[in-house]
Amino acid sequence: MSTNPGLSAHQDAESPGTGRGRGIGAAIVGFFAISWFAWGSAEPTAAAVTVLIRTGTAVGLLVIVLGAVLAVRSPAGSSVMADPVASRRYGIIVGLEFGLIGLGSAVLGAVGWTEWIPVAVCLGVGLHFFPLSPVLRDPGLIVLGALLVLVAATALVVGLSTGVAAGTVTGVGAGVCLLVWAVSALLDRSLYPVSRASAVPG
């Protein structure tokens, strides 16, 4: 343990999980929330749903801007990606996610089940948050992953039992879940480790 209080406070302020990490995470998730809203609008939707999609898209754009500003204005060390081990694990998990989702989508397309591709993608995205949670040191990602898995299951049931497109359900549901997490990443510091330096009042 360091005997230099100033050095200790500086290291805590630069610790992974604050500042740049929150900003980058919010911007990335905000972008994908917008992408899901766009997917949800691929089919005609009710007026209320259309308003929700447009509002979510506008908020997502704002989140991207605010996340980018926070990331740029924060120390480079205030991100888990500053740790080479965490960065490598992150790359492996995300790479596997994209590979498996791409393979699953290709298989569904080949057998003519393209309407279920959004469900498969949503499921894959939700599942990849579980191994990412310890890597990014954010237990909130487990909640986000569980919600996305629930969205995928709901979309499957709704798509099979009603005339509502599964893509609409996954697009709106996943978009809302991701957007809520992105906003929380900007506003709720409890999602990330709070450094002792920032916790000292005054």
Provide structural commentary.
- With about 200 residues, the protein is an all-alpha fold.
- Helix content is about 75%, strand content about 0%.
- The chain is built from eight helices and no strands.
- It has helices at about 5-15, 20-40, 45-75, 85-110, 115-135, 140-160, 165-185, 195-200.
Detail the topology: elements first, then pairings.
Layout: H1 5-13, H2 20-40, H3 47-73, H4 84-110, H5 117-136, H6 140-161, H7 166-187, H8 196-199
Helix pairs in contact: 2-3, 2-7, 3-7, 4-5, 5-6, 5-7, 6-7
Which keywords apply here?
202 residues; mainly alpha; disordered N terminus
Q: What is the global morphology?
A: globular
Helix percentage = over 70%
Regions with little confidence, pLDDT below 50 for 5+ residues: 1-17, 190-202
Output the structural class.
mainly alpha
Proportion of residues in extended strands? under 5%
Total helical elements = 8
Number of strands: 0
Largest sheet: none
Write a compact overview of the structure shown.
The protein is mainly alpha-helical. It contains eight helices and no strands.
